[in-house]
Amino acid sequence: MTHSSHGATQSLAQFCSRLTYDAIPRSAVEMARNLLLDGLACLVVGTRGGPGKSAAATVKRLGGHPQCTIFTGGFKGSVRDAAFANSIALYSVGLNDIHKPSTSHPGGCIVMPVLATGEWLERDGKDILTAMVAGYEVNGRLGTATAPSHRERGFHTTGTIGTFGATAAVGRMMGADPAALASAFGIAGSQAAGLYEFHHDGTLTMIFHAGRAGQNGVEANLLVQDGLSGPATVIEGSKGFCKATTDQFDETVLTQDLGERFLIEETSFRLYYGCSSTLAASGATEEILRGLSNEARIAEIEVRCHPVVFRDNNEVNPSTLLAARLSMQYNIALILHRGSVLRGDLGEEELWDPDIRRHLPQVRLIADESMPRFGAAVRAQMEDGRIEERAIMAPVGDAASPPSFSDVAEKFRRMAGPIGESSAVERVIGLVENLEANSCLDLTSAISDACRAAVH
Predict the structure, then answer these.
(1) For residue 215, how far is the Cα from the chain centroid?
(2) pTM value?
(3) What is the pLDDT of residues 249-269, one digit of tens each?
(4) Domains parsed from the chain with CATH numbers
């Protein structure tokens, strides 16, 4: 695939608008398929939660054309509002994917606007997969190019970078030509927002950011169709996104090997509860517990972790569900209580469970520059003085060893099965597995059935 000598914005627009299913390597197609099913697992569970219900209630109050399914509540709304509400439902469940080089969660911003647009325009399965690859490509490149400065300045990459990823994916679904998509990127750049301040108190703007990113992606493309324009140098320009929101960025990452290396394949899965920064420690703690006798009692857990994890995930007394998910202490305490990692999500009852919280003071973090960003070394001291140690440098589901489709299907069953009808759950899995032979309408209908069972 060849690209023009234009700047990054126009080169990315040209790549995405001209991308075809047949031009995508099979490994990238299969990764898109797995990530789609992974996102749908989170969506089904998310339709039961407070953030998904709040977003659905808001868009219902606002009204609008009944173009697409709002899965929480099972009613129809505008394509823009469907992208917004459904993305919030998906992202509210902290088991969605992560692109570690950009520290963003692309699935929360891309999957739902792709499905909303596909339902509205009656696209097929190949269109879904192609659009996802395009969206993940832009998300990954822009996020990696601006890391770590963008986040260190206080921006939440899921909301900011995710807006561009959603715009790319929706533009591909809508058949935007290169000029139109570059202009949509220009509009998206003025909408890309999300401040990281939520991290201090566990408030829900983090979840809102994914919804807004999905909504922005739809809106930017629609505005271009109706005559609005945006700067075609919005990413790399002297007053553009990269220079305005970072102290330093690597412009070469934006287009280097474009069309030859597909960044969707660098995405990691989260196969059990927690923040991406806590998964390695959770897995190591579970390994230690598995090797202990029933009589063994742990007195203290020491987690050696990267300094960023020490700064962002060192919360000994979380008071919200989001704060608990981000807290290393809570994640370890949950495993000490259960004996294994939780392969699902939590509610208020677990947050305040005294049997879990009594373990919080036992967990201590140590910052270690030598540790990888998402790795951890766990040292458990027993009451009798014995020491057990385990280290995991890359947690299960990492891009270096991604799960198979059957692995992700099992995650879907584990999450959606207890709250939905098994026939609806299996129908979603079957449709995604053979997506090329099915339409977006087929898939959204099956998802609706699974979510309807979940809601009730």
Answers:
(1) 15
(2) 0.90
(3) 999 999 999 999 999 999 999
(4) 8-271+400-455 (1.10.4100.10), 279-392 (3.30.1330.120)
